[in-house]
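W.,

You were right to be curious about this one. When I first looked at the sequence I had no strong expectations either way, so I just let the prediction run and decided to look at it fresh. Below is the sequence, 608 residues in total, followed by the output.
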Amino acid sequence: MTTPERATVVADRPEGYSLSQAVAVGINTTSPAYSLASILGPMALLVGFATPVVLLVSFIPMALTSVSFLYLNRRDPDCGTTFSWVTRAMGPMPGFIAGWVIAATGILIIGSLAETAVTYGLLLFGLDDLAASRAVVIGGASVLIVIMVALAVAGADSSIKLQSVLTYLQVGILLAFGVLAFVSAYRYGLPRFSEEWVNPFYWGAEALTAAMLLGVFAFWGWEAATNMSEECRKPTDAGKAGLVSTVILLGTYVLVAISVVLYLGQSNFNPVGDSGLVLVDMSVSVFGPLSFLVLLAVAVSALASTQSSFIPGSRAVLSMARRGALPAKLGLMHPRFKTPWVSLTMLAVIAVTWFIAVSLVSENAMLDTLSSLGILVAFYYALTGLSCAIYYRRHLTASVKGFLLVGVGPIIGSVGLLVMLVIALRSLWDPADSASGTAWLGLAPPISIAVLVLVLGVIALVIRRIVAPAFFTSSAPQVAHVLESPFMLDAEKDVPEGGIVLDCNDPLERAIRAIDAYAMADVDRATPLYLAFGIRPPGVQGEEYETVTDALAQLGERTFAIVTKRLKSMGFTSIFRFYVDADAKRSVEEVAERLHARDVWSDHHADT
């Protein structure tokens, strides 16, 4: 039995990433050890003992967005993720900008991650003087980026093995740190429980919002796993990996946050060192002679993320090139390694150039680059959530599950991110408050960078629309057909065989007549019943075919609903619905053949 091409489930591949390996990429792209080390100190100073709760609150919009990635990936497992989905739901121009922003975020973050990996790698080996040299760090980071992109080009085997090892290593160290920090805090006496621990608003809305922005940064990157649909053995594993990696990160983050807050609370959250990374400053007290493990975790975290952060941008460029939004050469795959080597190389060259240029402008300029990421990330995450609700809008009223999971949830997540985006713009507006302390192009550096990315994206869009207009003229917004449900269709499930096919192609009264004629009292009510409906219109082609197919599918949906209600009222408990890409007669035959049905109930030839 078949379904239309747009609802076809992509077959599993014998080779590629497993679900656990895709999860490793999702975790590594967030750089968990580095992210936690960076945000926990500032967050604790903002909201004190409420830090773990605020982490949970900041996780909410990310979790709601991760649901969007899961369900959009189910019907469109494209490596371009947000680019492809926004194009499908909103049209080619919003889609182009979304893909452009994804590629830009990778370029902006890579240099900082490589710099951190080199700096803490040198500190790990006691080379403090070299770590303090800007020339050594900038040069080393540039070389590291080249090495990481070479590994990414070299293929899945070497890349994913490194990713998996680094994942287990840093998560293991973080969990050990969390347990030992809790033991240390317990030994000196835990602070008394108060309302502050569970009330994120305890220190006011402004402090909460600032802390949540730090939390969003900590979770950013998990969606890299969803960009790997074309490299996973099961394309649908990419969406699952994005969701699973988010949950793992949440558990690890909250555990470490609780331990760190209990530890810092003993000194009224006074800084315990001057590195700027609270886990590093606490390492001696927590790990003792094994304190180097924290340096190792931070270095490994940044190293792993340096490699995996290339994935979203390069896959977005690959997808855009395939669709004609960007030059086709950017979508070329390596003949041996089967990786998008052109897009990877291009992004690496731009990333190194940007990193060196910004580092030479100011030692703090990279911090402004990181601040601009919050603006860009909130932008394209929000677009993803909105695209989910827009694309699946016909399914929002079909069930409570659809209303909540592909409607209310994604919209709330998107609105939350947009609110934080506005607040971030307000907090970053004054150039004097930036890391560089000066204005760039009349604006604060983080805002200037974000605006520059968007302006360049618009310029590129205009150029491509003139040079290669096909993508922009042939990619009209779409709405999900009944066969493009965000949830699994019965045709995609493991359905029990040996049941009875009910022909639902005739007018509704005939289907009801067939039920009344054949559903005798002696028919076992646990017998599987297969409702068959053909959606291929005879003698129709072109755009009319699409329109008629949509109308037939909607008719089938209404017929199925009424017939299902009738069968359930008669006591039948195992009912499955099948939309078949065939005419009425063949649809019944295909369902019967596939499921080895023992009988067919049909009033197809009855007299009216």
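Here's what jumped out at me. The chain has two domains: 22-474, 492-601. And, maybe more interesting for your project: Confidence is low (pLDDT under 50) at residues 1-10.

Coffee later to discuss?

I.
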